[in-house]
Amino acid sequence: MGNTKMGALEGRFADIIWENEPIASGQLVKLAQLELSWKPTTSYTVLKRLCERGIFQNSGGTVTSLLSREAFYAMQSEQFVEETFDGSLPAFLAAFTSRKALSDKEVEELKEIIDGLRR
Question: Where is 63: in which H helix or E strand?
């Protein structure tokens, strides 16, 4: 899969798709016009770009995702940690928590995730 990064506006457009899929491309254009004030040509151009990246597909005028929102953001997170912290999740967590303390609840949730991975 090629470049799956999205800009902020592309992300908002993608959210419209994920929240409404499967969606007719004409209805998607109308929603983008209402929510983003986009012209139809802008919507079709961005949709084509996101389809070329393998995130969505437009088949027979119906738009669906090839990647769920969760899978997409998991890939983005993984790529960010890889590019920024040489793939080290502990280095990422150390950097993240140096500016924002984790709550007791967050610490417990992380422990549960780690314990689940050990099984």
Answer: strand 62-65
Q: Span 8-69: which CATH code?
A: 1.10.10.10
* Alpha carbon separation from 19 to 3, 36, 78, 109 (Å, rounded): 22, 15, 23, 27
The pTM (predicted TM-score) of the whole model is 0.79
Residue-level length of the chain: 119
Type of residue found at 103: S
The domain limits of the chain are 8-69
Whole-angstrom Cα distance, residue 50 to residue 11? 10
Q: What percent of the chain has pLDDT over 70?
A: 97
Q: How far apart are CA 91 and CA 45, in angstroms?
A: 38
* CB contact at 8 A, 81 and 89: yes
User: What is the pLDDT at residue 30?
Assistant: 98
DSSP alpha helices (H): ranges in 1-119? 8-20, 25-36, 40-52, 69-85, 89-97, 104-118
Inform me whether the pLDDT recorded for 3 exceeds 90: no
